[in-house]
Amino acid sequence: MDEAKTSHPVFVIYTSGSTGRPKGVVVEPRSLNLSPRWAHAASPAMSGRTLVHSPVSFDLTVTGLLGPLTLGGCA
């Protein structure tokens, strides 16, 4: 894949973190590809069925949704 295309942001997660000041984290295609792979290695059950019980605005929801869906499971 062209390097210029892989550096475009997929989405930005905004969080207050521990400082209480809002900040954004840019998620690029490479990270979005590697994150579900890492999550599956850490939790093989993710390739089955997952219950998502957090709002879509929460950063961990991305793993809860994309992990199973990219590994043949369902959310």
Explain what the structure shows.
The protein is of the alpha+beta class. Helix content is 40%, strand content 13%. It has helices spanning 3-6, 29-42, 59-70, and strands at 11-15, 23-27. The chain has a two-stranded antiparallel sheet with strand order 1-2. A hairpin with a 7-residue loop joins strand 1 and strand 2 (23-27). The N and C termini lie far apart (29 Å). The model has no long low-confidence stretch (mean pLDDT 75).
In brief:
Helix content is 40%, strand content 13%. The chain has helices at residues 3-6, 29-42, 59-70; strands at residues 11-15, 23-27.
Biggest β-sheet description: 2 strands, antiparallel
**Series of secondary-structure elements, N-terminal to C-terminal:** HEEHH
- What share of the residues lie within helices? 40-55%
What's the oligomerization state?
A: single chain
What amount of the residues lies in strands? 5-15%
Rounded radius of gyration (Å): 14 Å
Distance between the termini: 29 Å
Ranges with pLDDT <50 over ≥5 residues? Answer: none
Shape: globular
Structural class of the secondary elements?
A: alpha+beta
How many helices in DSSP terms? 3
Instruction: Give the mean pLDDT.
Output: 75
Strand line-up across the major sheet? 1-2
Q: How many strand segments? A: 2
Question: Mind sketching the topology for me?
Answer:
Blueprint: H1 3-6, E1 11-15, E2 23-27, H2 29-42, H3 59-70
Antiparallel strand pairs: 1-2
Helix pairs in contact: 2-3
Provide tags for this entry.
3 helices; two-stranded antiparallel ribbon; 13% strand; 75 residues
